[in-house]
Amino acid sequence: MKYIDMHCDTVAEMYYRKERGQQYSLYENELHIDVKKLQKGGCLVQNFAAFVHLAVRKEPFNYANALIDLYYEQLELNKAYIAPVYKFEDIEKNEKAGLVSALLTIEEGEACEGKIENLRHFYDRGVRMMNLCWNYTNSLTTPNGIDIEKGVDIKETANGLTPLGFEFVEEMERLGIVVDTAHISDKGFYDVLEHSKKPFVDSHTNARSIFDHTRNLSDDMIKKMGERGCVAGVNFCCEFMKDLKKEEYGVSFELAVNHIKHLINKGGEDCVGFGSDYDGISSQGLAMANASYMPLFVDEMKRRGFSDDLIEKIFYKNVLRVYKEIL
Known about the structure:
By secondary structure, this protein is α/β, with parallel strands linked by helices.
C-alpha cells in the first residue's frame, strides 16, 4: 500500500549531525526515515520539513535556507531513488519512474522573518507547505504552545493571526503553498478556517477528545475541516496520543487507529491522512518504529473493519486530493 506522510523532521536531524561533524545520509541511517525505509514502506510522497527552533536559531531565514541546501544536496546524491515535487504532476511523473517523491515544507512561519518577499523566496526554492508557527508567538500568529521547561501545555484561545498572518495566508494560497495549521492556537485555527479559500491541512495532530493535548484538534475543528475538504495527519508522537488507561509509554497501531476512527467519525472519511512526525519524536514504545513499518497499519485497519477504499483514502488519496487542488 503506497502512502503519503505530511511531516517529518529528518532534514533537521541530519543537519544536527552535520554541525557535530558526524556522518549523515538520506540513503541509509539510524533515523526513522531514509531512502531504503521509504522504499520498503511503499512511500508515494514524503514531506520533509525545514524545522526552525526560534529559541535556538537566532537567524531563522538563514537557518531555514541552510536546511534547504542540505535537503537538495541529499536529493541530488540519491536522485536514482527520490525526486522533488514542485507541482502535482511531478508526483505522477516520479511514481511512473519508480521514484519516491519529496515535498519540501517549513515548520515555523517565522523562517520568513515577517517578510512576504521571503515567503516568495522559499516558494522559488521549492517550499510547498508551511505551518504558521511552532512553539513560540511570532509575527504571524500565536501557537498552542508547550512550556518545555515546566512541561505544561498552553491552550491559547484569545490570540490568533496577526494582520501580517492574514496577508501570509492569502499569499500562500496565491502562490500554491499549502497552509498548515499544526501547532497554531485555537483562535488562529478558526482565523485560518474563516479567512482561507482553499483546503488547508493540520499536518501532524490527533483527536483532542481521545487525549486532551493542546496540539490536538477539538471535535468542532475536525468537523469544520471535513466540511471544507481539509485533511488532518495522524501524528505518532506519544504525547499527542497517550492511552490514559495504560501506564506504559508508547504508541500502538491500535491506539493510532483509535484516533483515526474518531477523526473519521467527526469529520468524515475524506479528512484523514498521516503526519508521522518521524525524527521529531521518541522511538520508545513506538510500534511503527520507522517508515518501513507503515504497511502494518493495513492489518490493524482491516481488523477494525476498514474497507480497502477507505484505507486507500487514509494512506494517500485524501492528501493527494489537496495537493492536486493547490500545487
